[in-house]
Specification:
By secondary structure, the protein is an alpha/beta fold. The chain has helices at residues 12-18, 100-103, 112-121, 154-158, 164-178, 197-208, 244-250, 274-294, 316-329; strands at residues 3-7, 57-67, 74-81, 93-98, 128-133, 137-138, 190-195, 215-219, 229-230, 236-238, 257-263, 268-269, 272-273, 303-309. It contains 9 helices and 14 strands. The strands form 3 sheets. Strands 1, 2, 3, 4, 5, 6, 7, 8, 11 and 14 form a 10-stranded mixed beta sheet that branches. Strands 9-10 form a two-stranded antiparallel ribbon. A two-stranded antiparallel ribbon has the order 12-13.
């Protein structure tokens, strides 16, 4: 599959400036709906921006098609962002992003490949391989006409609490990527991310497999009852993501670093109230840590942070925060030196 080179819409200087300190992690941020400079998340020293340069050519390979044995009769697409200076002898970090058709859109709210590329070139984060995967679609061939729309097997994959999506990810998708590109095996160097139902799918994979992913980025996460299925008598046959706060409180702590974002104007419908659900997730993670401290548990703790915004069910606020979130996720890992100078501090 030939490489597709996208012109990055954001310059290195703009993204490096976006990573500068200001609002502290956990502070409630107000982000207007109009385009603004991304609100910072990560604390710490300012990343010094290099001299302005022409927009970088972002190397995005794909799309590739992946049929699944876990979900027979479905096919999905994925793309791979290859960082500048990729060296298989020095495997980069890994970022796996759901709803890849929107995450890679050059004129979209997220523009994740462009964000990664600019931050890596600025020396703000370590080299990171990006993998962007769509949900499955029930067909032999992924429709070229689908565009940014949701494939028709999204809810069955993203909103279910079973291990199926994890198995597809770990046993099918990542091995397919690894046949061409190497990436880190250490879960601390791997992040899984998504928005809406893609966020809860990411959480489910990391929750079930912290040995595979140690970092979760959740924007407008659907921790609601979308996956709930009831029998004829009203008995639950399958549960939805609204049970996660209770599971977190009653289960051993996983060694996970978690970032949550949601907006006060997010959805409120038959599946649940998104903003309240995200607040419940944060409260459960904090309670689990406090309870472990109070009982003298010497095990893991959740490393959790959040930003609540004024937005609705949109990728816009998460996209604005993304450069700072990536710095926060990789904050204890050294970035490699920039061309012609030392790594940014």
């Amino acid at each position: 599959m030939r490489a597709i080179f996208l012109t990055a819409a954001l310059t290195v200087a703009a993204l490096a400036a976006a990573a500068a300190p200001g609002a502290r992690p956990g502070q409630q941020a107000r982000i207007p709906s109009a385009p603004v400079t991304p609100a910072p998340v990560a604390t710490g020293p300012v990343v010094t921006a290099p001299a302005p340069t022409p927009p970088a050519a972002v190397r995005l390979e794909g799309p590739f098609a992946l049929a699944s044995r876990v979900y027979p009769g479905t096919v999905r697409r994925y793309w791979v962002y290859v960082p500048p200076g990729y060296d298989p002898a020095r495997p980069p970090n890994l970022l796996l992003f759901q709803d890849g058709q929107r995450a890679t859109r050059p004129d979209g709210s997220l523009r994740v490949p462009a964000v990664l590329d600019a931050l890596i070139r600025a020396g703000a984060i370590p080299p990171t391989l990006g993998v962007f995967v769509t949900p499955g679609h029930r067909s032999a061939r992924y429709p070229d006409t689908l565009g940014m729309a949701n494939p028709d097997h999204r809810a069955e994959e993203y909103d279910a609490l079973s291990d199926d999506y994890s198995r597809m990810t770990l046993d099918e998708l990542l091995p397919a990527v690894a046949r061409r590109w190497r990436f880190a095996a250490d879960p601390r160097r791997r992040a899984i991310a998504g928005t809406s139902s893609g966020a809860i799918a990411s959480w489910t994979v990391a929750w079930r497999h912290p040995e595979a992913f140690g970092n979760v980025i959740s924007f407008i996460g659907s921790y609601t009852s979308i996956g709930l299925r009831l029998g004829a008598d009203g008995t639950p046959l399958a549960y939805g993501g609204d049970v996660y706060p209770g599971l977190i409180r009653k289960s051993p702590i996983r060694p996970l670093r978690v970032f949550l974002q949601d907006g006060r104007a997010d959805l409120d419908n038959e599946h649940g109230h998104w903003f309240l659900a995200n607040q419940q997730m944060l409260a459960a993670l904090r309670w689990a840590n406090a309870h472990a401290d109070a009982t003298g548990d010497r095990g893991a703790r959740y490393d959790v942070d959040h930003v609540w915004t004024d937005g609705g069910h949109s990728d816009a606020d998460g996209g604005a925060l993304l450069p700072g979130v990536l710095r926060w996720i990789w904050r204890d890992q050294p970035a490699r030196p920039r061309a012609g100078g030392a790594a940014a501090r």
